């Protein structure tokens, strides 16, 4: 097994991927498995480089100049005299002498500044900088014979370190990158950064563990199902106060095979809708290998087909009240299925290629990788398990559960129409689900798809937490009806509309900018260019706070809970949970973006100081 050549913290010269340019970098770490060095550039960008792409700084030290007896200028002068095609006139000789003196001065200036410009830039300077020789050539005058000296200087300065680039740029009237337009800077380097993504094929081990590491994730595997059970038992009580702890039901009452069969039927029905050859096929964001996966966008069609199927069942007088009566059993069935699915996902991930593993779920610890997800995009053929579960069974199931609670309220209280509170809760959450399905393509840019693996966290969240916890307000209203007036209902509706407007417009700005930054519709948006070739928006909603979509989410969550009144805090659990969840996500996003964008992210944070709540947090 080869030993590492460079130590952590050592300053070396690293080749920029896809080019011949070397820059000063610091060695951050070394992966024994992939034999890749993680290096950090001066702007904060971190990349994984092979040992062959790294050189010691000593190999870039300037070479000693040649002796005066064989100086380039002296050889150039003698060569020019012997090979000059004509000496007709003092003016011509004087002009040629002045040209040589001018060019020698230029060479001397280059040597004095110890240029470490990349070879391509040196060539550009020496070839395209206007000179008297070029002028002579165009006027039909003889060309200076210093071509060999030019190549000599190029070779002599090919690998010298870049110590005084600014002076050279000023000498040759070149613009620095800071003076270039932001969009030109991004697109001029687009190919280089596409190459950067393709070379990092083998992800390194996950070093920074979230959720409290192994102990924290083990506790969450036990705590999350217990929390769902606790919340549902509390809603069943006449007095759902926090101090009134519910009695635990008998274990045999929590399981019913028929209920589990209905859940499986629901899951595979949504899988059938997902596989229908309708809807457009789009590509996701590039993976670490440069590959782009294809996704079929037909979630809204699946929702329409599901609504038609439910309508047919109601027409034939199928009682959805069954879902309310066995709500606890359905939750347990979904939890059991998510556990089984998570075990399958982890076992199959053990045979997955290294480049297909999730960057955040490759720690080498069983419980941590089981929880966060070991494989990034597990697929059975073209069937993407993570993408399917993200929007289909749980999200559409949430609407079906809410509808079942509305019908249960009407049946229990003999109502000809549901209460105003129940109508508001169903309407607000239906809008949220329909919006997600209508804008299904936007989910492809979220961290759930691009960064997180598919393990217990997402499987349990998609199949259990979303349909059975997000519907908590509707379930609460069945056992604890709340009467609200029309003016109060109107005020709550305004609150929800404000939250939805912030949520949707912020996400639209981000998604449109990611897809096509050059879109004329986005010309009024300003951004900070980054070393990855992407831009950070500093106007619009993203110049207001760093995560305006989270702000809209929290306002909507509050509007969903307000129809339940203020008798108990239980309906507001979702608001409290959502704030904690988004604060955690925000902290994770901050850490991820700081590593990814380096100094550009620090500039963005100075420009936009508030994270979620303006003037507060």
Automatic annotation (TrEMBL):
Native source organism of the sequence: Furnarius figulus
Membrane topology of the entry: Multi-pass membrane protein
Compositionally biased intervals (Basic and acidic residues): 99-110
Entry GO terms, CC: endoplasmic reticulum membrane; nuclear inner membrane
Alphabetically ordered keywords of this record: Cholesterol biosynthesis, Cholesterol metabolism, Cytoplasm, DNA-binding, Endoplasmic reticulum, Lipid biosynthesis, Lipid metabolism, Membrane, Nucleus, Oxidoreductase, Phosphoprotein, Receptor, Steroid biosynthesis, Steroid metabolism, Sterol biosynthesis, Sterol metabolism, Transmembrane, Transmembrane helix
PANTHER family the record matches: DELTA(14)-STEROL REDUCTASE, DELTA(14)-STEROL REDUCTASE LBR
Gene name of this polypeptide: Lbr
Regions that span the bilayer: 215-233, 259-278, 299-318, 330-347, 458-478, 484-503, 524-545, 565-584
GO MF entry, a single one: Delta14-sterol reductase activity
Similarity comment text for this entry: Belongs to the ERG4/ERG24 family.
EC numbers, comma separated: 1.3.1.70
Gene3D superfamilies, A to Z: 1.20.120.1630, 2.30.30.140
Ranges of Basic residues composition bias in the record: 76-95
Domain Tudor intervals: 4-62
Catalytic activity of the protein: 4,4-dimethyl-5alpha-cholesta-8,24-dien-3beta-ol + NADP(+) = 4,4-dimethyl-5alpha-cholesta-8,14,24-trien-3beta-ol + NADPH + H(+); 5alpha-cholest-8,14-dien-3beta-ol + NADPH + H(+) = 5alpha-cholest-8-en-3beta-ol + NADP(+); 4,4-dimethyl-8,14-cholestadien-3beta-ol + NADPH + H(+) = 4,4-dimethyl-5alpha-cholest-8-en-3beta-ol + NADP(+)
Subcellular location field: Cytoplasm; Endoplasmic reticulum membrane; Nucleus inner membrane
Matches recorded under SUPFAM superfamilies: Tudor/PWWP/MBT
Stretches the record annotates as Disordered: 53-111
InterPro entries in UniProt: ERG24_DHCR-like, Lamin-B_rcpt_of_tudor, Sterol_reductase_CS, Tudor
Protein name per its UniProtKB record: Delta(14)-sterol reductase LBR
Pathway note: Steroid biosynthesis; cholesterol biosynthesis
Record's keyword annotation contains Ubl conjugation: no
Source lineage: Eukaryota, Metazoa, Chordata, Craniata, Vertebrata
Residue spans of biased composition, Low complexity class: 55-75
Enzyme class: oxidoreductase
Chief place of localization: cytoplasm
């Amino acid at each position: 097994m080869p030993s590492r050549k460079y130590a952590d913290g050592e300053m070396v010269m690293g080749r920029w991927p896809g080019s011949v340019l070397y820059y000063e970098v610091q060695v951050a770490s070394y992966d024994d498995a992939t034999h890749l060095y993680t290096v950090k550039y001066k702007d904060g960008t971190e990349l994984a480089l092979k040992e062959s792409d790294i050189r010691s700084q000593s190999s870039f030290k300037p070479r000693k100049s040649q002796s005066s007896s064989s100086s380039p200028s002296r050889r150039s002068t003698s060569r020019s005299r012997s090979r000059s095609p004509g000496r007709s006139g003092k003016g011509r000789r004087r002009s040629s002498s002045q040209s040589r003196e001018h060019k020698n001065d230029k060479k001397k200036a280059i040597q004095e500044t110890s240029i470490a410009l990349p070879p391509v830039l040196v060539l550009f300077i020496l070839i395209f900088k206007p000179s008297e020789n070029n002028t002579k050539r165009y006027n039909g005058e003889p060309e200076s014979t210093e071509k060999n000296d030019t190549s000599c200087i190029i070779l002599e300065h090919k690998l010298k370190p870049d110590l005084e680039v600014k002076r050279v740029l000023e000498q040759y009237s070149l613009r620095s990158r800071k003076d270039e337009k932001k969009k030109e800077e991004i697109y001029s380097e687009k190919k280089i950064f596409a190459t950067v993504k393709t070379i990092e094929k083998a992800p390194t081990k996950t070093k920074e563990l979230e959720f409290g590491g192994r102990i924290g994730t083990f506790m969450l595997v036990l705590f999350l199902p217990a929390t769902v059970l606790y919340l549902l038992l509390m809603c069943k009580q006449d007095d759902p106060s926090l101090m009134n702890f519910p009695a635990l039901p008998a274990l045999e009452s929590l399981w019913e095979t028929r209920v589990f069969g209905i859940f499986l039927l629901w899951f595979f029905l949504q899988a059938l809708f997902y596989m229908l050859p309708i809807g457009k096929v789009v590509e996701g964001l590039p993976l670490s290998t440069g590959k782009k996966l294809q996704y079929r966008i037909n979630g809204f069609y699946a929702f329409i087909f599901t609504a038609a199927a439910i309508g047919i069942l109601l027409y034939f007088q199928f009682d959805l009240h069954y879902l309310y009566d066995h709500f606890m059993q359905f939750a347990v069935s979904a939890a059991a299925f998510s556990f089984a699915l998570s075990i399958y996902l982890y076992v199959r991930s053990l045979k997955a290629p290294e480049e297909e593993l999730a960057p955040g779920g490759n720690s080498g610890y069983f419980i941590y990788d089981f929880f966060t997800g070991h494989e990034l995009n597990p697929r059975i053929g073209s069937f993407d398990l993570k993408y399917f579960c993200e929007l289909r069974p749980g999200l559409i199931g949430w609407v079906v559960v809410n509808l079942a609670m509305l019908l249960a309220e009407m049946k229990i209280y003999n109502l000809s129409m549901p209460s105003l509170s129940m109508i508001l809760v169903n309407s607000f959450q239906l809008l949220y689900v329909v919006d997600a399905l209508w804008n299904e393509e936007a989910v492809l840019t979220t961290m759930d798809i691009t960064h997180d693996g598919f393990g217990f966290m997402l499987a349990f969240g998609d199949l259990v937490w979303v349909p059975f916890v997000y519907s908590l307000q509707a379930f609460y209203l069945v056992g604890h009806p709340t009467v609200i007036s029309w003016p109060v209902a109107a005020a709550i509706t305004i609150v929800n509309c404000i939250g939805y407007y912030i949520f949707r417009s912020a996400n639209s700005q981000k998604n449109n900018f990611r897809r096509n930054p050059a879109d004329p519709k986005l010309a009024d948006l300003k951004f900070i260019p980054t070393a990855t070739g992407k831009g950070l928006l500093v106007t619009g909603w993203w110049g207001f706070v760093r995560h305006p979509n989270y702000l809209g989410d929290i306002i909507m969550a509050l509007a969903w809970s307000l129809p339940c009144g203020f008798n108990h805090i239980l309906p507001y659990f979702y608001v409290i949970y959502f704030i904690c969840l988004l604060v955690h996500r925000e902290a994770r996003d901050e850490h991820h973006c700081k590593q990814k964008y380096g100094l550009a992210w620090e500039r963005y944070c100075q420009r936009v100081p508030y994270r979620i709540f303006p003037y507060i947090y």
